[in-house]
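Section 5.1 Outputs to date
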Amino acid sequence: MTGDRVTIVRTRFGSCERVCPVHAIHDVWIDHNRCIKCYCCFEACPNGAIRTRIKL
């Protein structure tokens, strides 16, 4: 999906960093050039800190 964005609102547990297969997550920011939009971070986040935004 072109235009998708994954953003981190806050990080606390580091679960999203550990599951990212391309290591695109660094502390509280996502390297969008490396992100493959697999949404593993979204599923792994225990506190809802990962948000997705789809540009239409």
